């Protein structure tokens, strides 16, 4: 079966997550991705189990080559690879590619048809353009950590590299947009994405509220600050669920399902604004209704009746989730040493 990017050559100078994860998407769409690593291996190879997990997750189906860019021969090899490429991707520290004659300006001057794509920590034009950037710095400086955590606790990071993962998706989208433009108009392009701008943009609704009211959001733990019940935790006999039912019809339906129609008429809860003001009292009432149910019983009660709810699941439970199994996300692949291992597959399945 033909894939959308069959015949497209990508040279990937990326390390860690944001760039390699983006080119992994291109692999899954059929591109031939050549991963260029230092002779000592990319940086992820030196950080133990976490690095091994990164490598296995974001480098399936790529062809790897070790090149010493500090030597004339290595630079010659890299230039030959770039000359045959449709797309060049990199996220090395600022100035590194320029030092080897492989920066965007030099490559685009020599090969105008190339899509040259850079993902950086803080962008290429602001005062922090020379700073190295990692996911956690973007979480901190974008406001994500400021709004994550309990109201009386310290700021918290999201429990996985959310900015790296999101930046990879945005990066791949931008690369594909530039490639479509080349197909239509015959010219290459330069693509730039930064972790900081993606991290800010991920918080669109929060920024929308802030720009409307001038009031910055604050940490509030679980639950959405301006609607209720929304993203609120309901402990059960054997775990917990999260539920949202903040529109008037959904809240009335929820009250009916838990045999508490009186709650919908209670002046403390009769409107969304009232429920937000009285969230603590509301949670006491709602949690009492689920305290003697199992998670399965709660889900069977709510979800067939249009109430949004989800099991709070461990990784073991996620792996066994029949909906996850149905996606085929976990796949068996052959390692470089010939052994098989399980890893995450792609989210893109053309055809």
Mind sketching the topology for me?
Layout: E1 9-12, H1 18-28, E2 32-37, H2 48-58, E3 63-66, H3 72-83, E4 87-90, H4 96-99, H5 104-110, E5 115-120, H6 135-142, H7 162-185, E6 189-194, H8 195-201, H9 204-213, E7 232-236, E8 239-244, H10 248-257, H11 262-265, H12 272-277, H13 279-290, H14 295-302, E9 308-311, H15 315-320, H16 322-327, E10 330-334, E11 340-344
Parallel strand pairs: 1-2, 1-4, 2-3, 4-5, 5-6
Antiparallel strand pairs: 7-8, 8-9, 10-11
Helix pairs in contact: 1-7, 6-8, 7-8
What does this structure look like?
The chain has 351 residues and is α/β, with parallel strands linked by helices. The protein has helices at 18-28, 48-58, 72-83, 96-99, 104-110, 135-142, 162-185, 195-201, 204-213, 248-257, 262-265, 272-277, 279-290, 295-302, 315-320, 322-327, and strands spanning 9-12, 32-37, 63-66, 87-90, 115-120, 189-194, 232-236, 239-244, 308-311, 330-334, 340-344. The strands form three sheets. The chain has a six-stranded parallel sheet, with helices on both faces. Strand 10 and strand 11 form a beta hairpin. Helix 1 crosses helix 7 (162-185) and helix 6 crosses helix 8. The longest helix has 24 residues, at 162-185. The mean pLDDT is 96.
């Amino acid at each position: 079966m033909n894939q959308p990017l069959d015949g497209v050559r990508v040279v990937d100078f990326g390390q860690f997550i944001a760039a390699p994860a983006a080119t992994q998407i291109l692999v899954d769409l059929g591109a031939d991705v050549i991963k260029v690593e230092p002779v000592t291996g990319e940086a992820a190879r030196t950080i133990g189990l976490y690095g091994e997990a990164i490598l296995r997750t974001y480098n399936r189906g790529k062809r790897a080559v070790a090149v010493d860019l500090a030597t004339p021969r290595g630079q010659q090899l890299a230039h030959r690879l770039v000359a045959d490429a449709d797309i060049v991707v990199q996220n090395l520290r600022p100035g590194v590619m320029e030092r080897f004659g492989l920066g965007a300006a030099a490559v685009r001057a020599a090969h105008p048809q190339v899509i040259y794509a850079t993902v950086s920590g803080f962008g290429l034009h602001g005062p922090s353009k020379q700073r190295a950037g990692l996911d956690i710095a973007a979480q901190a400086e974008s406001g994500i950590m400021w709004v994550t955590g309990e109201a009386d606790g310290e700021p918290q990071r999201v429990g996985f590299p959310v900015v790296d993962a999101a930046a990879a998706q945005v990066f791949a989208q931008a690369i594909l947009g530039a490639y479509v433009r080349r197909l239509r108009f015959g010219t290459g392009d330069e693509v730039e994405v930064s972790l900081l701008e993606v991290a800010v943009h991920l918080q669109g609704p929060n920024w929308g509220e802030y720009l409307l009211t001038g009031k910055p959001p604050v940490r509030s733990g679980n639950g959405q600050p301006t609607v209720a019940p929304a993203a609120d935790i309901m402990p059960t006999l054997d775990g917990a669920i999260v539920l949202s039912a903040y529109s008037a019809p959904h809240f009335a339906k929820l009250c009916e399902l838990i045999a508490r129609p009186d709650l919908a008429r209670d002046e403390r809860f009769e409107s969304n604004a009232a429920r937000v003001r009285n969230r603590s009292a509301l949670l006491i009432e709602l949690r009492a209704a689920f305290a003697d149910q199992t998670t399965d019983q709660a889900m069977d009660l709510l979800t067939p009746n249009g109430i949004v709810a989800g099991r709070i699941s461990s990784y073991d439970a996620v792996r066994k989730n029949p909906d996850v199994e149905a996606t085929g996300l976990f796949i068996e692949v052959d390692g470089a040493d010939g052994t098989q291992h399980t890893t995450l597959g792609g989210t893109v399945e053309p055809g």
